[in-house]
From TrEMBL:
InterPro entries: BMP_lipoprotein, Peripla_BP_I, PnrA-like. This is Positive regulator of comK. Belongs to the BMP lipoprotein family. Keywords: Cell membrane, Lipoprotein, Membrane, Signal, Transmembrane, Transmembrane helix. The chain crosses the membrane at residues 9-27. The keyword Lipoprotein applies. The keyword Amino-acid biosynthesis does not apply.
Length: 321
């Protein structure tokens, strides 16, 4: 009797164990399938909009905004939209209103020309931070990132004064910044109080014809050193200076490759690094602070290119001391 019960007990135990194993496998397979079909939700990217009045073409002011976009997309969890040629007040209003309806968190104006409209809209959108490259900031959610390259412009001014034989020096500017950035002019008078500065404003970053027209006027005045503080038009100005044997100071990049025998130095600045500084602050513990933030050489926004071969060792010691 016991012998007949024993096999049944073994059979029952086997069925129970097998059933449990099958159930366990079903559960595991189910979990694996659900895990494979589940994609963890990534942290939402911060929405950033950049506005520029300029075109996105090589050597343009607007191209620096595009490079800034590429840099912050590479280094930060952001989704960036860039709008170019937003160059009239109605177009600024239309574009900004459209952008603000998309849930954007940071709006960056590529130039001081966006300060006024940002000042109007900032109180209406307290959850958005408005930032301009240069300009003014009024509200708590409005900031300006700028830099004062005065120290290196002072050295460039000393260099210009040392080289000039006519004591006539020209400065061609994209925008009127004579009062805001006086260091170059101050350095000229520091070296030679009898120097005359001829100041021209193109009111554009890339108007070649206007810049060259001013360059021709300066040459006719007897100017023998010109600092061209532009962007797109610098190439045309430097080419004109090379042909007429005028000493030049470049801008934005080391432009000695265009006319090495006539280029004193270049005041280099990397505007695209300002975008990195903005987003670095945004993702910091403090966030972007209201008001004006002046960036320095440590932020990688400016430096002076090497001086040209026309300077003696004595000249260079004088410039730096």
């Amino acid at each position: 009797m016991q012998q007949s019960i024993h096999p049944r007990w073994i059979l029952l135990l086997t069925v129970v164990v097998a059933s449990g194993f099958i159930i366990l496998m079903i559960i595991k397979v189910s979990n694996v399938l659900s895990e494979s079909s589940f994609t963890p939700k990534l942290e939402d990217k911060t929405r950033v909009t950049i506005l520029t009045t300029d075109e996105i073409i090589d050597q343009s002011w607007g191209s620096l905004a595009y490079v800034g976009q590429l840099k912050i997309e590479e280094q930060f969890p952001v989704e960036v939209t860039l709008y170019s040629e937003i160059n009239t007040e109605p177009l600024q209003e239309e574009t900004l209103e459209k952008v603000l309806e998309t849930g954007v968190e940071v709006v960056i104006g590529h130039g001081r020309e966006f300060s006024e409209i940002f000042t109007r809209y900032a109180p209406l959108y307290s959850n958005v931070h408005f930032v301009t490259i240069h300009g003014d900031a009024v509200h708590e959610n409005q900031s300006v990132y700028s830099f004062n390259q005065g120290e290196i412009e002072r050295k460039a001014g000393i260099a210009a004064a040392l080289i000039s034989e006519t004591s006539k020096i020209g400065l061609i500017d994209a925008v009127d910044a004579r009062e805001e950035q006086p260091q170059f002019e101050e350095a000229l008078y520091q070296v030679n109080p009898d120097i005359s500065l001829f100041y021209k404003v193109v009111n554009s970053w890339d108007d070649n014809s206007k810049a060259v027209e001013y360059m021709e006027e300066l040459v006719n005045e007897g100017v023998d050193v010109v600092y061209s503080r532009g962007n797109g038009f610098n190439r045309a100005v430097i080419e004109y200076g090379r042909k007429h044997q005028i000493y030049m100071i470049g801008y934005l990049e080391d432009q000695s490759y265009m006319a090495s025998e006539w280029m004193l130095t270049s005041v280099m600045n990397d505007v695209s690094q300002m975008y990195v500084a903005i987003m670095k602050d945004y993702f910091s513990e403090e966030g972007i602070l209201p008001g004006v933030k002046l960036l320095t050489e440590e932020d990688g926004v400016y430096q002076l290119a090497p001086f040209g071969p026309m300077f003696t060792e004595e000249d260079l010691r004088f410039i730096y001391e």
